[in-house]
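Try this one yourself first.
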């Protein structure tokens, strides 16, 4: 547990480190990757070498054992200084499934290598084309045959699959009709994708409006060792849910970083751009949206801080993690919209980076969880309203 003064010092050092890395990979680097839809290998390598992606892994497994509030600061800074952590943020937190529910043997075998970057665990195969948000209706199955499971089915939006060695996979091991509750009978596996690719697994990239290396994956009788099972068979849904709060908090931090980038970019431009013989920032019509986006961002960050504190105290309710994600993604989008408008026509010119960041910021109201589902959670769990689905 870090003391307050220590925490301030660590955050300041981390922000300096991240800033230096982001300065090495400036706008032109990201523009080129975006244009050609290439993975930012060099940027990810730099973060890995600095140990930043291993910050949440306990020290006994080779990580830095830092709390989620510091993990959030890393991602926030990456986005604030103009880069994008979407290519590698999952290397930070997908390991949580192994850490919380894996056997000692699995933890010893994988976590130190994930910490060093020798193994990349940044693919998370949950969403399916027909089930969508209704996760318990997934139809990918893993059938036990001797000392193996045989996997059949399809995943969609499995991001970074082509840049990951391992994948956390959710599959049904008992048919929905044979379980009391549909959340039962789902299991989590840690799959070695390098082997699976030789044995019936196919990855197909999906071209999207942002450079996110996302894919669809097909499993055609893919054998995986029975030892790939994480925890107990049939309890996988619970294991997946247990990682959601961390993911929401960390994505919220990225949104705050994006919002800060837009606010700074817009303020700088509003001071520089002269029309009618004065800077456009002199007009309140330009000032007020910037000030409003700033206020929204500060408010969202306060909720994010509270979500981090609750998480670090062991609170497992999703209320603040969900609210942090909701408010931060809305603050970043409001900032993106404001920044676009402030820049007028130049907003759509590639070289200003505004249009790219604008496309990137929009994702976070949809993934990893959509705004509606967060509102449904709050309505049901905080306000006692009937479950709507
Ligand atoms: C770029 C990208 C990367 C992603 N990466 C991953 C990944 O790595 N791994 C992974 O497993 N998934 C990933 N996802 C999937 C993401 O989590 C889902 O897209 C998201 O959860 C929404 O599911 P869906 O797209 O099927 O929408 P649907 O479930 O079809 O929903 C469509 C719309 O209807 C709304 N809706 C649905 N049901 C309700 C309801 N009951 N009440 C109110 N509104 C409702 C939703 O909010 C949404 O707005 C990614 C998605 C994208 C776009």
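Now uncover the answer:
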């Amino acid at each position: 547990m870090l003391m307050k003064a220590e925490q301030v010092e660590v955050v300041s050092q981390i922000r300096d480190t991240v800033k230096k890395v982001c300065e090495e990979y400036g706008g032109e680097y990201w523009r080129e990757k975006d244009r050609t839809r290439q993975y930012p290998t060099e940027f990810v390598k730099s973060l890995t070498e600095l140990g930043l992606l291993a910050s949440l892994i306990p020290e006994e497994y080779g990580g830095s054992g830092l709390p989620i509030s510091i993990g959030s600061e890393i991602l926030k800074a990456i986005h604030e200084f103009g880069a994008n952590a979407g290519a590698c943020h999952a290397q930070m937190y997908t390991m949580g499934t192994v850490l919380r529910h894996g056997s000692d043997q699995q933890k010893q075998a994988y976590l130190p290598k994930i910490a060093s970057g020798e193994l990349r665990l940044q693919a998370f195969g949950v969403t399916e084309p027909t089930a969508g948000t209704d996760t318990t209706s997934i139809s990918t199955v893993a059938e036990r045959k001797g000392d193996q499971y045989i996997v059949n089915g399809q995943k969609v939006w499995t991001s970074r699959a082509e840049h990951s060695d391992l994948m956390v996979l959710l599959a049904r091991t008992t048919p929905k009709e044979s379980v009391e509750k549909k959340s039962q009978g789902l299991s989590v596996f840690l799959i070695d994708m390098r082997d699976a690719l030789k044995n019936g697994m196919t990855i197909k990239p999906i071209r999207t409006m942002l450079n996110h290396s996302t894919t669809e994956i097909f499993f055609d009788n893919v054998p995986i060792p029975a030892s790939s099972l994480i925890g107990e068979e049939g309890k996988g849904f619970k294991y997946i849910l247990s990682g959601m709060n961390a993911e929401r908090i960390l994505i919220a931090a990225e949104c705050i970083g994006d919002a800060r980038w837009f606010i700074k970019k817009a303020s700088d431009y509003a001071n520089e751009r002269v029309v009618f013989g004065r800077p456009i920032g002199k007009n309140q019509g330009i000032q007020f949206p910037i000030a409003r986006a700033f206020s929204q961002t500060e408010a969202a960050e306060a909720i994010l801080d509270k979500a981090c504190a609750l998480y670090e105290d062991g609170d497992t309710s999703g209320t603040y993690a969900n609210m942090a994600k909701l408010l931060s993604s809305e603050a970043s989008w409001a900032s993106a919209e404001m920044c676009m408008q402030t820049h007028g026509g130049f907003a759509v010119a590639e070289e200003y980076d505004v249009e790219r960041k604008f496309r990137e910021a929009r994702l976070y109201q949809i993934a990893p969880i959509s705004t509606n589902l967060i509102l449904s959670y709050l309505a049901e769990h905080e306000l006692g309203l009937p479950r709507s689905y």
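Discussion: The chain has 13 helices and ten strands. Residues 238-381 form a domain with the Butyryl-CoA Dehydrogenase, subunit A; domain 3 fold (CATH 1.20.140.10).
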